[in-house]
From TrEMBL:
<feature type="domain" description="FAD/NAD(P)-binding">
    <location>
        <begin position="9"/>
        <end position="290"/>
    </location>
</feature>
<dbReference type="InterPro" id="IPR023753">
    <property type="entry name" value="FAD/NAD-binding_dom"/>
</dbReference>
<keyword id="KW-0560">Oxidoreductase</keyword>
<protein>
    <submittedName>
        <fullName>Pyridine nucleotide-disulfide oxidoreductase</fullName>
    </submittedName>
</protein>
<dbReference type="InterPro" id="IPR017224">
    <property type="entry name" value="Opine_Oxase_asu/HCN_bsu"/>
</dbReference>
<dbReference type="Pfam" id="PF07992">
    <property type="entry name" value="Pyr_redox_2"/>
</dbReference>
<dbReference type="GO" id="GO:0016491">
    <property type="term" value="F:oxidoreductase activity"/>
</dbReference>
<dbReference type="InterPro" id="IPR041854">
    <property type="entry name" value="BFD-like_2Fe2S-bd_dom_sf"/>
</dbReference>
<dbReference type="InterPro" id="IPR036188">
    <property type="entry name" value="FAD/NAD-bd_sf"/>
</dbReference>
<dbReference type="InterPro" id="IPR051691">
    <property type="entry name" value="Metab_Enz_Cyan_OpOx_G3PDH"/>
</dbReference>
Length: 430
């Protein structure tokens, strides 16, 4: 039987990445605040520390800010239900936790977007950010021949990190066209920090081919392991022998929890007002979950949400100009890395789209909606609950998931059984 517990705070921040950290810091000046995250440490994916490393100076600074304000951090907690206003159910290291709040800030971040193509399920084909996280956790890549492909600024960051750890990065292939990225370069001129960051990555990748307008069309395997990838620019193809293929097509917001709460969701993320409040009163959202925009946008939106949720409206309003600037950059980035139509034609009839349930493209073709595909094929009903195939089918067929039900994440049966009992301990952090 799970050991039930309960917490109560003025402001709960769901997500411990940059947006969540900034939100917690801003709110803690006026409220009792806790950050929940399923990771063991603050920082999210972008500030995940490598083994034996202390992390970036900016990440260290924000961790110190959180510590100085004595903000509670509930590590290893995953929110899976919101049964009533002001109440969350989460699974923690000790089982079920009931968490009560007055205001809630969603900073659920984003995940990589994957698109199916022949061979994408071979061993050695990973997400770009996923491979970076594995290397930070100790996976050796010294002398491994790696191709990084897909779309988005993450590709260069990952490639530079892999090379720093001894990998042979053979090529970075970006599906966006040179014309798309030329227009994005104009937007970068008003963000000198981002220009400098990009130049650092290119310097770290000196000698590595950076090919614009190229994308993967097939990964070739031997005994189930990738050994080469065929790239195309729509006119010609090239095959590159490799040990690993790190491939992802930019990012998509994590929207399961906002959808569970009933927040309005637009094409690019959760809909918010100028104070980051969602369509649900008392529920705020910040960072990548309102639209992919990078670190600066996440920190600014986090601070606004934190100030607004704790009644410090004047401080929140003072950041509106910075927020508008960050959103303009976010829009420019979305246009620059928009996925080309050719990527919709990569699948062969037997190409798996739903890896959890082994559902091929041929079995999905002909259905008219996400719901119909689920009912007839079980697409999206496996362990990932549509987190991989959902965005893929949205891109391929225009399907959108129309419902989110608890549990929003996989939980142990014992935790669900704990819902039938009363909490055995209560914690109110003053």
């Amino acid at each position: 039987m799970a050991n039930n517990c309960a917490y109560e705070f003025d402001v709960i921040v769901a997500g411990g990445g940059p947006a969540g950290m900034a939100a917690a810091w801003a709110a803690a000046g006026n409220s009792r605040v806790a950050v929940l995250d399923d990771n063991p440490a603050l920082g999210g994916q972008i500030w995940r520390k490598a083994l034996h490393e202390s992390g970036s100076p900016l990440a260290q600074e924000w961790r110190r800010k959180i510590y100085d304000r004595r903000i509670a951090f509930l590590a290893g907690h995953r929110i899976f239900a919101a049964p009533a206003k002001g109440l969350l159910h989460a699974e923690g290291p000790d089982g079920l936790c009931e968490i009560r709040y007055k205001k809630l800030i969603l900073a659920t971040g984003a995940r990589e977007q994957f698109l199916p193509f022949p061979g994408w399920t071979l061993r050695g084909v990973t997400g770009a950010g996923g491979l970076q996280a594995l290397v930070k956790s100790g996976l050796p890549v010294t002398n491994k021949r790696i191709v990084v492909a897909g779309s988005g600024p993450l590709l260069l960051a990952v490639a530079a990190h892999l090379r720093q750890h001894g990998a042979q990065v053979l090529a970075v292939c970006e599906q966006a066209s040179p014309a798309q990225l030329a227009s994005f370069s104009v937007a970068l001129l008003s963000h000198p920090g981002k220009v400098a960051e990009g130049l650092r990555y290119r310097s770290a990748l000196a000698g590595t081919r950076y090919k614009l307008g190229w994308w993967p069309v097939k990964a070739h395997g031997r005994n189930g392991q990738v050994h080469a990838v065929t790239m195309s620019n729509g006119h010609r193809k090239m095959e590159i022998s490799c040990d690993l293929l790190a491939c992802s097509f930019h990012l998509v917001p994590n929207l399961e929890l906002p959808a569970l709460l009933g927040c309005e969701i637009l094409n690019h993320g959760v809909a918010v007002d100028t104070l980051q409040q969602t369509s649900i009163a008392g529920v705020y959202c910040a960072g990548e979950s309102t639209g992919i925009g990078g670190l600066e946008k996440s920190l600014i939106e986090g601070e606004i949400a934190g100030y607004a949720s704790s009644g410090q409206v004047a401080k929140a309003q003072a950041l509106r100009h910075k927020r508008s600037r960050a959103i303009r950059f976010s829009s420019a980035m979305r246009r620059a890395f928009a996925l080309r139509d050719e990527l919709r034609n990569l699948c062969q009839p037997d190409t798996l789209v739903c890896r959890c349930e082994d559902i091929s493209y041929e079995r999905l073709h002909g259905h008219t909606s996400w719901r119909a595909a689920k009912l007839h094929t079980r697409c999206g009903m496996g362990p990932c609950q549509g987190r991989v195939c959902g965005p893929a089918t949205d891109f391929l067929f225009g399907w959108q998931a129309n419902s989110t039900r608890p549990p929003a994440v996989p939980v142990q049966v014992g935790t669900l059984a704990g819902l039938e009992t009363n909490p055995t301990s209560t914690h109110s952090i003053e």
